[in-house]
Amino acid sequence: MLRMLVSRLGQGVIVVVLVTLFVFLTTFLTGDPAGLMLGEGATQEQIQAFRQRMGFDRPLVTQYGSFLVRAVRGDLGVSLYFQQSNMQLFAERLPATLQLAFLSLALGTALAIPAGLIAGARRNTWIDSLVTNAALVGQAAPVFWVGSLAIMVFAVMLGWLPASGRGTPAHLVLPTLTLALFPLAYNTRLIRSSTLEVLGQDYVRTARAKGLPYYVVLFKHVLRNAIGPALTVIGIQLGTFVGGSVITETVFAWPGVGRLAIQAILTKDFPLLQTIVAFLAVGFVLVNVLVDVAYSLVDPRVRY
């Protein structure tokens, strides 16, 4: 277990370095950051002074090295647009994103496990057809369309729920349901496929031959082995939700990290964008390490 953790963390460090390097270089591939940040009306003298003040006149290798050194020390600079510490801005928005991501993934997974398990156990029945077709629709529906439709029906027409913002539990309902739709649909199909595979194993037939009740076999023997492949996907989805719930946060004006990233792009605030990407890369790596640990606990064979 310790060797696996060390290996995963070592790979994670490499991933974080490569991701931050890619974003850092992409900043310069889009054009001169000084010119982009100051706008078209800036003079050459202003651009040159800005480049010197921000260190953009130094070689890219030197700039990236300085970025890594400051990042290790916990200093990721100041936002050019908000004129606040990048770490402070990220820390202020992170709780909202984590709240939305965890609730959405927990809701989608809690519904997907029984739905996929029952659909697999009732293969080729009307229950299986209903669950499978509903999952296909859920996967195909675009998030922005689902969010807009939810706002139109439940906020505008019925007036039951607020359309945007964050504050009360009611504000969580629409964005959580919208973001939970995809993991619900995807994980349902994945768990159904795993259930069908596990049902054909010898130990399941042996358990049923011993006269154990069918629900005991299903939830004790089948579920534990069928949920293993889903753990990896759930971990990836959590990392994706934390960094990629941009559309949902934009549609519902949710004050999270995704919306902050959009604001950084629109205002050409590249230091803030680099900070967001760096932290999200670290979070994504840590989530996947935890998934590996959870997978080894569910299936002891993975440890060997």
Model description:
The protein is an all-alpha fold. 78% of the residues lie in helices and 0% in strands. It contains 14 helices and no strands. The longest helix is centred in the middle third of the chain and has 36 residues. It is globular, with a radius of gyration of 24 Å. The model has no long low-confidence stretch (mean pLDDT 78).
SS-based structural class? mainly alpha
Unreliable parts: none
Helix content: over 70%
Shape: globular
**Main beta sheet strand tally, sense and closure:** none
DSSP summary, beta strand count = 0
Cα(first) to Cα(last) distance is 9 Å
Return the average pLDDT rounded to an integer. 78
Provide the β-strand percentage band.
under 5%
> Count of helices?
14
Topology as a string of helices (H) and strands (E): HHHHHHHHHHHHHH
CA radius of gyration is 24 Å
Q: What is the structure about, briefly put?
A:
With 304 residues, this protein is an all-alpha fold. The protein is 78% helix and 0% strand.
Write the layout of secondary structure elements.
Elements: H1 2-29, H2 33-38, H3 44-54, H4 60-72, H5 86-121, H6 126-140, H7 143-157, H8 169-199, H9 202-209, H10 214-226, H11 228-244, H12 246-251, H13 257-266, H14 270-298
Helix pairs in contact: 1-14, 5-6, 5-8, 5-11, 5-14, 6-8, 7-8, 8-10, 8-11, 9-10, 11-14, 13-14
